[in-house]
């Protein structure tokens, strides 16, 4: 159940019901048609679909990701030929802990569709879609760098933003946000004084 | 660094060697070239952090020519920041390119995830620092979509004005530095003269020149002051003729044309496959502008054209961007002409602060103000949005996932520079070393957005 109002733990305010915003002109019809087409193409698979504010999310079983992407890209009606974005997310409390998120876009009908793949922690591997869209290369490297999700079939899976010898994957929710103490002279003096 | 001192008696040869001279230079002046070049290589290797700056590869097969690997950057003026390219050269032909990025990575997405939704706005200014207002806009639109907020008409129009001013100034920085890379000095001064006017206007509207943070979730921080609208009016009177001036300097310039026409072209299929967006895609003839095809913030109310190139080369990218500047000026004129009076923040007190004067009379306003400042707002739980806009570089988008708390659970920027930079390798391979600078310039990268 999706509520259009803000659900804040705030007893002093009443929740004002609001119509969904008119500022966003994206229409979900094309995405809905694509989901139907996808389900017809893969009748044995179950695709969980979620809708929120005109955006459609399809959960794809991990092992069927590449054929599904290939179909959505090449089918004349769906034609999601542009991979806009690829990123990950980490939910430490859930059972498949990680998810990989694909934002598909079409330069034919200019609509979006979001695919999601759940990836468990103990088998942290996701099939690579670099064979479908070349742009996935750097996105997958970044997701590997930040979340430690391995992309099977990626031509060159290395860290991209962090140095090679970096320890850990900083965008995992379990990683604390850290800092370095700047080495000012006054600190050294204080340390030396404390040592005596 | 230890200074080299000669043990010999000072003779006339060593007269020009001073104590404070760098060791390499001192050796070169003494004529000890072999030692000097080894030392120079070692120092360069230390600076670049990985291997030697120049490496000569043995030919793979007999008959092959000798290939050389050189580092371009991260400290190189034409890489527009800290981009490092590892180039493999066969004579002057580039045979292999590997962009190395991450030198400016500061974990901005993680920083945003540790801040309240409103506080994260200041981080967005730092992504693409030539286009702060555009970044504010896409982030605010994403959070507003998550919340389902309605934005008043005047705020939408002012947002369009600011975003278009930002686009103009970003294109001016691009044109100035691109022309400078290719040896045209005057354009730089012309562009920065007008960019200065835009930055002064940003100063008038929000008090900051570069890191604007003028937009808020639910509207704007404050209404535009009358002097801003006056300066904008003055600016719009001259801008068309100034853009013609830039184009006059470059479009017919033999050197500029010679270095840009037919360089760095990609086919439409390659461009779509590589996810390239913005002026580069349009220069290849792809008719796609997010402002037209998925309008946001009231762009559907303005009448403007999307310039399309034909040849996909560096020169067409230049033409597309210059025409975009003219179209931006036209949007600005329409937006200023049709600007209506009204509120600039949405009426929902759980999203945007109550007006200052209400705090003196209304207890409810004080509570709203206090709760909003100390705690912020809570978007619907376990929901996510993906909102895209057109930045000067291409399709910029935010993916925000919420867990119902007052901080974004996952906040990801789709930086157009990051994606477009991937196309550098296919554009460069097989071209001459001298084209590298022109092609990097034509992609228009901002490393703040690439490395995040």
Average pLDDT score of chain A: 80
Percent in helix of chain A:
10-25%
CATH architecture of chain B: Orthogonal Bundle
Multimeric organization: heterodimer
CATH topology value of the domain at 29-165 in chain A: Beta Polymerase, domain 2
Radius of gyration of chain A over all CA atoms, rounded: 22 Å
* Coarse shape of chain A: elongated
Task: Tell me what you see in this structure.
The complex is a heterodimer of chains A (196) and B (452). Chain A has 196 residues and is an alpha/beta fold. Chain A has a domain at 29-165: 2-Layer Sandwich (Beta Polymerase, domain 2), CATH 3.30.460. Chain A contains 4 helices and 7 strands; from the N terminus they run H-E-E-H-E-E-E-E-H-E-H. Chain A has a 5-stranded mixed beta sheet. Chain A has a two-stranded parallel ribbon with strand order 6-7. In chain A, 35% of the residues are buried. The model of chain B is unreliable at 1-14 (pLDDT under 50). Chain B is 47% helix and 12% strand. Chain B has 452 residues and is α+β, with helices and mostly antiparallel strands. Chain B is built from 18 helices and 9 strands. In chain B, a hairpin with a 2-residue loop joins strand 7 (383-391) and strand 8 (394-402). Chain B is globular, with a radius of gyration of 26 Å. In chain B, strands 1-2-3-4 form a 4-stranded antiparallel beta sheet. In chain B, helix 1 (23-30) runs antiparallel to helix 2 (33-48) and helix 6 runs antiparallel to helix 7. Chains A and B meet through strand 3, strand 4 and helix 3 of A and helix 3, helix 5, helix 14, strand 7 and strand 8 of B.
List keywords for this structure.
heterodimer; A: 196 residues; alpha/beta; Beta Polymerase, domain 2; five-stranded mixed β-sheet; two-stranded parallel sheet; 23% helix; 21% strand; elongated; B: 452 residues; alpha+beta; Cytochrome-c3 Hydrogenase, chain B; 18 helices; 9 strands; 47% helix; globular
């Amino acid at each position: 159940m999706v509520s259009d109002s803000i659900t804040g733990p705030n007893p002093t305010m009443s929740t004002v019901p609001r119509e969904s915003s008119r500022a966003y002109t994206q229409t979900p019809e094309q995405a809905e048609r694509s989901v139907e087409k996808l389900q017809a193409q893969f009748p044995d698979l179950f695709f969980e679909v979620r809708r929120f504010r005109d955006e459609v999310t399809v959960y794809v079983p991990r092992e069927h990701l590449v054929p599904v992407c290939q179909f959505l890209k090449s089918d004349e009606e769906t034609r999601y030929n542009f991979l806009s974005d690829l990123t990950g997310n980490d939910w430490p409390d859930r059972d498949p802990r990680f998810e990989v998120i694909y934002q598909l876009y079409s330069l034919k009908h200019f609509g979006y569709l979001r695919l999601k793949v759940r990836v468990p922690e103990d088998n942290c591997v996701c099939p690579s879609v670099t064979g479908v869209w070349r742009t996935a290369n750097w996105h997958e490297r970044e997701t590997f760098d930040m979340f430690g999700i391995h992309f099977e079939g990626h031509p060159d899976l290395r860290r991209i933003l962090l140095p090679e010898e970096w320890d850990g994957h900083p965008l995992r929710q379990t990683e604390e946000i850290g800092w370095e103490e700047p080495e000012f002279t006054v600190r050294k003096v204080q340390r030396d004084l404390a040592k005596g | 660094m230890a200074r080299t001192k000669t043990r010999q008696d000072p003779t006339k040869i060593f007269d020009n060697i001073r104590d404070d001279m760098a060791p390499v230079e001192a050796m070169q002046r003494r004529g000890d070239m072999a030692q000097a070049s080894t030392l120079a290589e070692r120092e360069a290797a230390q600076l670049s952090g990985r291997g030697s700056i120049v490496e000569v590869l043995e030919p793979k097969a007999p008959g092959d020519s000798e290939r050389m690997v050189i580092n371009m950057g991260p400290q190189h003026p034409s890489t527009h920041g800290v981009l490092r390219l590892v180039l493999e050269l066969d004579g002057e032909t580039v045979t292999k390119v590997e962009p190395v990025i991450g030198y400016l990575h500061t974990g901005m997405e993680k920083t945003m995830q540790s801040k309240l939704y409103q506080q994260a706005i200041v981080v967005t200014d730092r992504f693409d620092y030539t286009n702060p207002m555009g970044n504010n806009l896409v982030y605010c639109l994403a959070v507003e979509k998550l919340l389902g907020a309605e934005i008043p008409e005047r705020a939408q129009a002012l947002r369009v004005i600011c975003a278009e001013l930002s686009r103009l100034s970003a294109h001016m920085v691009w044109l100035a530095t691109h022309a400078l890379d290719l040896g045209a000095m005057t354009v730089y001064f012309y562009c920065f003269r007008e960019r200065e006017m835009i930055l002064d206007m940003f100063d008038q509207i929000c008090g900051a020149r570069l890191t604007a943070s003028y937009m808020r979730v639910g509207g704007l921080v404050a209404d535009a002051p009358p002097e801003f609208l006056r300066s904008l009016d003055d600016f719009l009177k001259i801008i068309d003729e100034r853009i013609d001036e830039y184009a006059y300097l470059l479009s017919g310039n033999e050197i500029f044309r010679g270095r840009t026409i037919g360089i760095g072209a990609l086919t439409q299929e390659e461009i779509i496959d590589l996810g390239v967006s913005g002026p580069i895609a349009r220069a290849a003839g792809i008719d796609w502008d997010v402002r037209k095809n998925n309008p946001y913030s009231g762009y559907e109310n303005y009448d403007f054209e999307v310039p399309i190139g034909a040849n996909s080369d560096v020169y067409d990218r230049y033409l597309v961007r210059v025409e975009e500047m003219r179209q931006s000026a036209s949007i600005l004129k329409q937006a200023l002409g049709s600007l209506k009076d009204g509120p600039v923040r949405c009426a929902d007190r759980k999203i945007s602060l109550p007006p200052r004067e209400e705090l003196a009379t209304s207890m409810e306003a004080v509570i709203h103000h206090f709760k909003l400042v100390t705690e912020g707002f809570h978007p619907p739980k376990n929901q996510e949005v993906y909102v895209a806009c057109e930045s000067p570089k291409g399709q910029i988008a935010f993916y925000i996932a919420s867990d119902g708390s007052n901080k974004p659970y996952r906040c990801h920027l789709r930086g157009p520079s990051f994606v477009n930079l991937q196309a550098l390798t296919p554009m460069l391979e097989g071209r001459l070393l001298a084209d590298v600078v022109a092609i990097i310039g034509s992609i228009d990268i901002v490393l703040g957005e690439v490395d995040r």
